[in-house]
Each structure stands twice: as C-alpha cells, then as structure tokens.
Amino acid sequence: MSEERWFTCTPVEFGGAEDFFSRDSGLMSRGFKAIGVESMAVMPGMRKPEDLDELIRTDFANLESSDWWRSHRLDGVVLYAWGRPKFRKIAAAIHEAGIFLVLNQDNGGLVSPLAGFAPWMREQWNLSGKKFSVRALIRFAKLTSRGLSLGLFYTDPLRAIHLKQGDKIGCVSPVAADCYRRLCKIYGGKKLAEKVTVIPHAVEPIFNYDGRSKKRQILTVGRWDDTVQKRPGLLMQVAERLLYTDPKIRVIIAGNPTSELEQWHSTLPPDQAERLNLRGFTNRQDLVELMAESTVFYSPSAYESFGIAAAEALCSGCSVVAGQSVSMAAFDWFVGENSGTLASPDTVENHISALQSELSAWDAGTRDAAAISNIWRQRLHAAQIAAQVLALSGKSAPN
Fold first, then answer.
1. Please, is 313 exposed, middle or buried when counting C-beta atoms within 10 Å of its C-beta (0-12, 13-18, 19+)?
2. Residue 398: per-residue pLDDT
3. How confident is the model at residue 399, as a pLDDT?
4. Of 385, 374, 315, nearest to 26 (Cα)?
C-alpha cells in the first residue's frame, strides 16, 4: 500500500454486506485498494452483524466533525451525498479538516430549474409518469411548484453552500456535467463551475468480455414493481413485437417479475413464451454470465440517474438501447462509441425500431463485442475510476 489514504462516505445508513461493495461508494473504496491506496468506506449507524471489516460505522454527529475527519489522517474523501442541503455540514467538516474533497453527484444534472428550465420541466414530466392522467398531472404540479418555490429559494442556496466545499464536483455523465456547470456558474461563478468534472460510477471488474460467441439475445434488468421508472408496460409491448417478428430472438428479463409480467408471459403463444425468460432475482455472478452471452442490453426506463446495469453490460461487450430523453443523460454517452442506439422520440414504435436496428448492426458486423468492452472497461472499471479521482488531486496511482 502507498502512504495515500482515501475514504469514501455515504451519509445514509445502508447495509454494509458484500452487495454494498458492488457499486457506488463501497466499490469506489475497493477501486482505491486495487491501485494500492489505503481505503475504507464510512457510513453512519450502529455496526451490523453482516457489515464487512472494510466498513467504518460511526455516529452521524462525527460525520459533521472536522476533528473526527482530521483524526483519520486522510489525503482525500469521495462523498456520496448527492449535493443535498441536509448533508452540507459533512462536506464542510471534511473541507475544514484540510482533506481533498470530491463530491459525487448521482443524478442526470437537472436538480434545479437553474440547470436549464425547459429540460428541467421535461424531467418533472418524466418523473411524473409521462401520462395525461389525474395522478400524473397532480404529481407534475407538485414537483414543479415545489421546485419553483422551495427549490429556488431554499434548496438551491443550501446546495450551493454544499458544493462550494468540494475541491472537485464529480458528475456521472458528460450531459450531467454540462448541467452542473450552468448551475455552478450561477451559484459561484466561473471558479465554481471549473470544479465540475465527469466521474462516472464505477463498475465491478467481474463485468468483462471473455471472447465467447454472443447469442441473439436481449437482456433487460430492473425493479419491475417500480412501474413509473422502469416501465414494464412498455417492455411487454416491445418484447412481444420482437418475439413475433424475429423467430430467433431470445429476451431475458432479470429482476423479480410483477404479477402483470407473469400474467402476460402466460398468455404468449408457446414458441414466444419459450423464448421469453422471466429470470427473477439474479445474483451478481449469474448476471455476469448473462451479460457476457447477450448481444444487446435494453433499458425501457423513463429516467435513470446513471444506469449502472447498462454500464456493466457495456463492459461485458453488449451494446445498449434505450429511449432518448433528458432523464436518461448517461445514455447519450453510452451509445457514443458505436455501442448502441437511442429511440427518438421515446415511443413504443421507436423502441422496437431501435432494437431491430441494433440487431441488424450486429448482423452486419458493425458492432464488435471486444471493442465495446475494451473502451468501456478502460472508462468504468473501479480501478480506472479510482486512478482518475486520485489524479484530480495531483497524485498518480502507486500500482
């Protein structure tokens, strides 16, 4: 290990078992270790039996104490606090302790109307369900009225205080970074805007491409009971059409299925039902295998702050298909290396066309699994992200 010590911190009491270290702040800490930097992850709360030794639990009050942070003799901290006002005292404590602070912003950038009014309004519509229903319209009215009142006059000033504590403000995609630069220029001028940089979420190194032949197979992963965000209704329409028009295609739906998904599957003609696999809960190793053998990863989501499953699929040599939207900011980047297609506008027909186009690209040899994997592993694997963060402080990886 080098003399460099970098911690990561999430100021919310999540579980601290192995799954915590498969993404976000837990995985970032492991990324530091992979390049020879001493690291621990920090969370508030009482220690739990399943917590791993590489996690520090502490009272929330300690997170707001510059003396507590100073006592750990740290060179840097990556704080996963979303820039939220209620965590601004944690950022201030780390800054006051003289520690290099990177603020991770896990969102698409449209956190305020000040980031771009028209796209922010479209984002609120997307978050409301994109439907002209009473429930969706009420939610849209609540979101917009809150953002244009409490957001502008309370949340934004406090978020500005939070962001000004950071040495770097890390955004998970280029589009999100552009939004934050506009926002930070308003918050603190050119100097604050210059702190904004792209630091994507890290991907576990187990997601790789091993050279195997890809199947004519589409994989999608989601929490399907979240019908507004993950849109299983759209997925069913798209998958049914593909299964009908392409007798060789297989579709894998990973994640616990809803009763609606199970009912729909039971009504498909036998040949189509056989080629549609409701996989259910899928552990990490099985997901590695599915991504390694699949050709296309499909996200029917209405919005994603990043899209970690899509990022894992890219590292596994899959190309990506999703709807083009201000609320899918990272996906413009994901498809930018001959590695996918976006449906525009975001309709059922265009999602079907985008997937068919992507499959045709594979058939024509204009998609290369090894090339896709090589590009995105170099950008997204945890050790690469850790080295990138270390470089921001003027240091280089010891390994």
1. buried
2. 78
3. 62
4. 385
Q: What residue spans of the chain are helical by DSSP H?
A: 24-34, 60-63, 66-70, 88-96, 117-127, 134-146, 156-163, 174-193, 227-230, 232-245, 259-267, 270-274, 284-293, 308-315, 329-334, 348-363, 369-380, 382-392
The bridge status of strand 340-343 relative to strand 319-323 is parallel
CA dist., res. 327 & res. 175, Å (int): 10
3-state secondary structure 164-207: CCCCEEEECCHHHHHHHHHHHHHHHHHHHHCCEEECCCCECCCC
Q: Running DSSP on this structure, what letter comes out for residue 212?
A: P
> Which has the closest alpha carbon to 340: 316, 325, 362?
362
Q: Which residue(s) pair with 255 in the sheet?
A: 280
Distance of CA 376 to the CA centre of its chain: 14
Q: At what angle do helices 369-380 and 382-392 cross, to 10 degrees?
A: 40
Rg (CA), the chain: 22
> What confidence score (pLDDT) does residue 3 get?
83
Residue keyed to tokens 């990324």: 31
pLDDT, one tens digit per residue, over 86-118 is: 999 999 999 999 999 999 999 999 999 999 999
Helix (H, G, I), strand (E, B) or coil at 4: coil
What's the confidence (pLDDT) of residue 1?
A: 43
- Cα gap 231→179, rounded to integer Å: 26
pTM given for the model: 0.95
User: What is the spatial distance between Cα 21 and Cα 23, in angstroms, rounded to a whole number?
Assistant: 6
Q: How many residues does the chain have?
A: 399
C-alpha 288/C-alpha 319 separation (Å) is 15
Cα torsion angle, 197, 198, 202, 205, sign:
negative
CA 272 – CA 274 distance, rounded (Å) = 5
Order the strands of the 340-343 sheet from edge to edge: 276-280, 250-254, 217-221, 296-299, 319-323, 340-343
**pLDDT tens digits, residue range 336-371?**
999 999 999 999 999 999 999 999 999 999 999 999
Tokens of 68: 């507590």
DSSP letter at 306 equals S
